[in-house]
């Protein structure tokens, strides 16, 4: 009996239950020799990425789990393993190699991977997320080795539920799905869009600390119109033109219903990188009847509004008095514009005044009543004025104080556009939010150089700090990754049936407040990425409060301490064990880690 308790304790300490098929009377040492089959299955489990500790298995655990001899003799603490990973990471020869290295780590040793991401956010975010994830998607056919997420295809029609049931984890609480049609600013990547779903869900865990076993990245492969992929003999998806019309919508509907059937109506369904007309069609169809959100519309909206609230704070001018010019009439710009309107209406600004100062343009110029509008959500933003085409002329004419581009068209914020922004504003707010970096409307350097260093600049993908007139300026990152992990964490904890738009107002305000609270008196619109985990937690707390207060949570009773309630459901990477040894193993000599590395690993803000 005592023996069984020890074994159970050990099972818990490494993260799985040992079961009851043990020899109750055997000693532990004999057990490991007598039961080769079980020992072998323990070995498989011990290298399962979810449980693996790598060289972090203690000598005691190695003895009990029949791992002696299967690992090198040295033992490594989590910190020593992190050091090993960071050395190997740094030795990779390109960002794509770093991406491949991290993917392999994820497939081998999940807790170490997430611990590394959270300790090295600055270094890892640009790899597992934008910009490198964009390159990875383009080349995904060469990188695919094993199931990272679920592929559902148009030919699974009528059987989507069976495909979903093949996913190895049974308790899924969030799904991120893309059909790959608009991957970042890189266009149609078909099934290669899996890289984006995987990247987003990795941030659920790295930033939101949502346990990875609750998450399922997915691709809905309905074909691709990307001619390069269609001609590529190694393309991993269905080599056919994209499905359109009712058949396309039916397969999306079947996916939605299958998720609800398999994992329940409280499963969060996150739509990512759908082409804009479909993105708006589905948000309007699903938002009120599924636990659903579209990240490019709503997550981006929360981040964009937060940036504008920061501009309001720094400029000491109410948001409704700012002239906002948006270049791009897609998911990102329209999502932000709609949330700004929501915020202004809440402040009792009249509808007419709320719309008055927001201008939107697309490739054919200013969106006016003459524009052939394909997305109904764009209609209220159409101006009753003559058409205008040149961005330079529009910026000169409307004198925006906030200029935001989400176009996927690199460099359209020309020197003249930027200088005009600088001419009309003391602190011109310039946001080049297109991803990846190669698609940014301007670089950080251009934004500061052409405005004499006065720009309040943010970009979608990270730019390095710029030194202007001897002053080091750190550009902010205006990316929806500051919003969706916190919203998802709140949803996972409170289990609502739907996610109203107000949730993204809460997220925006929390993000803006975070910057204000942590950088008082500083002209900083966003926290740094190393704080993204703390931001996600704050957003989760406020959004969870919102769900409880509005009666939308399905968790009863309302917890007294929401912070604690959320913390208890988060993912932790600790796998310490304090078991006694079975046979004696001497304390082996070790060498301390370099001081330099220890210092660098401590949290730094910029
Ligand atoms: N930082 C972040 O968090 C986020 C960034 N993004 C990025 O924003 C970009 C756009 O995404 P999304 O809105 O979904 O994309 P869409 O493709 O739906 O929209 C792009 C819009 O930009 C317009 N456009 C393109 N080129 C120009 C140009 N040269 N001048 C004026 N308008 C132009 C298009 O006009 P037309 O319709 O006439 O073709 C279209 O209205 C992408 O790069 C994406 O990565 C998206 C979401 C979040
Ligand atoms: C960040 C993001 O979601 C995009 O660029 O599409
Ligand atoms: Mg996106």
TrEMBL record:
The gene is LOC117571229. Residues 106-287 form the Malic enzyme N-terminal domain. A divalent metal cation binds at residues 272-273, 296. GO terms for cellular component: mitochondrion. Keywords: Metal-binding. InterPro entries: Aminoacid_DH-like_N_sf, Malic_N_dom, Malic_N_dom_sf, Malic_NAD-bd, Malic_OxRdtase, NAD(P)-bd_dom_sf. (S)-malate binds at residues 182, 435, 479. SMART domains: malic (SM01274), Malic_M (SM00919). The keyword Metal-binding applies. The active site is at 129 (proton donor), 200 (proton acceptor). It comes from Drosophila albomicans (Fruit fly). Residues 297-548 form the Malic enzyme NAD-binding domain. It holds the Pfam family malic. This is NADP-dependent malic enzyme-like. The keyword Metal-binding applies. One of its GO terms (biological process) is malate metabolic process. Its cofactor is Mg(2+); Mn(2+).
